[in-house]
């Protein structure tokens, strides 16, 4: 999908992109292979050629950060298939207070079938979090552009978070799916264990507090809850990516 994307070019929006697709210019190579394109001046075409050649180079080198700079956040979903093997699904738990006063209690990271849980006071630090995130080219969250990532930046100001970000909450809204993660999971047939049903973010805060008071089993339940939230982002991302791509196909032909 990313190699069929032209909205990364300055001055090209979705309507122009659709016109390019409809005219048979379906990807970067097709664009570069055209001497002239109606509606684009020769000088502008040369500039676009340079930008697309640069994009091809960065893509070949696996430099996803380049696309954070030239794509709007709402279009980062287009990178999911290309960077699927270097995608991390991320979800955090907190003490329930705003970032200046509160703390991150758990950071869940799930990638390639492996779950990593970083816990405040045990394994969670700027250095460990940066080391874990360094392996990945795309971060996937649910509502993370509003909550998870700003919270992490506030509590770990030296943390570098510069790779593209696929926020499933806003992708779902574009497809007419409203509500929170659990509601959308249920609507799409994504399940979690029965004893985790009904646990939400506020209960996660209470579980942390109970563990701090000495109830050792509370931390286990908190980690299992975060594990489910984090792992379930993967099938949700696959469904939403497929639907977004199908929406493009329905309007513009196979991409």
In short:
The longest helix is centred in the last third of the chain and has 20 residues, at 233-252. Helix content is 47%, strand content 11%. The chain has helices spanning 14-22, 28-33, 42-60, 65-70, 126-133, 148-155, 168-174, 181-188, 201-212, 216-231, 233-252; strands spanning 87-94, 104-111, 114-119, 138-141, 165-167.
Please give the number of β-strands. 5
N-to-C SSE string, H for helix and E for strand:
HHHHEEEHEHEHHHHH
Count of discrete structural domains = 2
Q: Percent range for helical residues?
A: 40-55%
* CATH class bucket of the largest domain: Alpha Beta
Stated plainly, the CATH topology of the largest domain is called: Nucleotidyltransferase, domain 5
Quote the beta fraction: 5-15%
Structure commentary:
By secondary structure, the protein is α/β, with parallel strands linked by helices. The chain folds into two domains: 2-61, DNA polymerase, domain 1 (Orthogonal Bundle); 84-241, Nucleotidyltransferase, domain 5 (2-Layer Sandwich), CATH 3.30.420.10. It has helices at residues 14-22, 28-33, 42-60, 65-70, 126-133, 148-155, 168-174, 181-188, 201-212, 216-231, 233-252, and strands at 87-94, 104-111, 114-119, 138-141, 165-167. The chain has a five-stranded mixed sheet, sandwiched between helices. Strand 2 (104-111) and strand 3 form a beta hairpin. Helix 9 (201-212) packs antiparallel against helix 10 (216-231). The chain is elongated. The mean pLDDT is 94.
């Amino acid at each position: 999908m990313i190699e069929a994307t032209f909205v990364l070019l300055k001055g090209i929006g979705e309507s122009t992109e659709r016109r390019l697709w409809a005219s048979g210019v379906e990807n970067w190579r097709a664009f570069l292979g055209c001497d002239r394109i109606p509606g684009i001046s020769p000088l502008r075409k040369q500039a676009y050629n340079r930008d697309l050649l640069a994009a091809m180079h960065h893509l070949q080198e696996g430099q996803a950060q380049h696309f954070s700079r030239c794509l709007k956040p709402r279009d980062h979903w287009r990178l999911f298939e290309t960077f699927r093997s270097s995608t991390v699904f991320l979800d955090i738990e907190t003490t329930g207070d705003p970032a200046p006063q509160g703390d991150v209690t758990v950071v869940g990271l799930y990638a390639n079938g492996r779950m990593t849980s970083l816990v405040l006071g045990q394994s969670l630090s700027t250095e460990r979090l940066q080391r874990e995130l360094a392996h990945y080219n795309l971060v996937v969250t649910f509502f993370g552009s509003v909550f998870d990532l700003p919270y992490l930046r506030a509590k770990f100001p030296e943390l570098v978070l510069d790779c593209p970000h696929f926020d499933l909450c806003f992708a779902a809204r574009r497809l007419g799916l409203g509500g929170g993660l659990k509601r959308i999971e249920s609507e799409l047939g994504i399940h979690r264990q029965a004893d985790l049903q009904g646990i939400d973010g506020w209960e996660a805060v209470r579980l942390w507090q109970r563990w701090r008071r000495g109830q050792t089993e509370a931390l286990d339940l908190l980690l299992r809850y975060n594990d489910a939230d984090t792992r379930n982002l993967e099938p949700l991302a696959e469904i939403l990516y497929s639907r977004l791509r199908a929406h493009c196909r329905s309007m513009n032909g196979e991409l």
